[in-house]
Amino acid sequence: MYQEPLVLYFVVGAIAVVVSGLAMAALRQPMITGYILAGFVLGPHGVGLVQDQTTVAQLGAVGVVLLLFFIGLDVSPRQMIRNWRVALIGTSLQVMISMALVGLLGAVFDWPLARTVLIGMVISLSCTAVVIDHLARRGQLETRVARDTLVILIAQDIFVIPMMVLLGLLGGEGVDGKTLALQCVGGLLIVGLVAWAITRERVELPLVRRLSAQREMQVFVSLLLCFGLAFMSGVMQLSTALGAFAAGLIVGQTRDVEWIRGHLDALRVVFVAIFFASIGMLIDIHVLSEYWRELVILVWLVFVTNTLLNAGILRFLGRTWPESLYAGALLAHVGEFSFVLAAIGLHAGIVGLVAYQMTVAAIAISLALGPAWAMLVERFLPAGWSQSLRPADHGPSP
């Protein structure tokens, strides 16, 4: 009997990714959809090869940390500050209008206030990985659309913190004063570090010059830079992804970006794939078969509503209609942090088990179909609109 099951998991997992990747390439769909499909097939609701979803989800969280770190490397902090109206006003309007629209639906079906707020929060979040991957593949990372969507996505990640606090209150759990104090202190520290890096002409990383000829040590220094601030952010009860993004912003102010990118890029690809595979494993085939009509209607409403809502907000903020509609389509799917909010809602008794399973299935399906939806909307935009995309004003590509 073979005694190394982990090796078998890697072999079968690689085969599943390659097969699904070839299928997605033939259908002109992104690899992210293939990762989710592979996770569904290999997970407990598929062939059942992988049963330990908790470990897979934890490994996937590493992928999110690496992804946000890389995004931070490429972002110009000064450019983000200049784009504060889109980040603050756009995201605030998006969250409030989403909850207001769900509130109307809740009034029709007589939902409790807590459930209405939860669903509004869940559909107001999008996934950074899906959007960045799509823009990169389309060669649109250096456009104003990319800049706008990125600052909205980062603002959404920050909004998750007060959302979690509010859900705790609505679920009757109250607010932990110690946790709230840690979050405030952690937020101030991260903002202070980023502000310090921005105001300096160049940030010098310790020991970098001494390690110029030691490749092995460079790998571990790269990991330390990426995960160090992410760990500190987690200790402060903030999102580890937020800490990783801040670390990327700081490191991006140095001249040592390329060798860090070179050492960590392969890890990013692998762990981001694991992250999306872990999402695929959450899809329950029994829920799909029993509630497929409701799920189809729900996912369709989410895509249409989020596209029109985000497009309207961006048009209000001065973007052209083609840019606004395309950005709205990019942000139409439901993001990874919505899983966290849904789990909090289940734990707090805001939603039951069936409603939670349907929510998880809808989130996973929207993530898988998000890039295809953006491509579909783009096809209906005026001919040649992409050639008129305005580039980001200055700084490196978002």
Notes on the protein architecture:
The protein is mainly α and about 400 residues long. Helices cover about 75% and strands about 0% of the residues. It has 17 helices and no strands. The longest helix is centred in the middle third of the chain and has 27 residues, at about 145-170. The chain is globular.
Helices and strands, with pairings:
Layout: H1 5-26, H2 31-42, H3 53-74, H4 77-82, H5 84-109, H6 113-123, H7 128-137, H8 144-170, H9 177-199, H10 215-235, H11 240-251, H12 257-280, H13 285-290, H14 292-316, H15 321-330, H16 337-347, H17 353-379
Helix pairs in contact: 1-2, 2-12, 2-17, 3-11, 3-12, 5-6, 5-8, 5-14, 6-16, 7-8, 8-15, 8-16, 9-11, 10-11, 10-12, 14-15, 14-17, 15-17, 16-17
Q: How do you describe this structure in short?
A:
This protein has 17 helices and no strands. By secondary structure, the chain is mainly α.
Gyration radius, in Å: 21 Å
Indicate the overall shape.
globular
Class based on secondary structure composition and strand pairing: mainly alpha
Report how far apart the termini are. Answer: 50 Å
Number of helices: 17
Biggest sheet character: none
> What is the number of E strands?
0
Order of helices and strands: HHHHHHHHHHHHHHHHH
Average pLDDT confidence is 81
- Low-confidence segments: 393-398
Percentage of residues in DSSP E strands: under 5%
Determine the fraction of residues in helical runs and give it as a percent range: over 70%
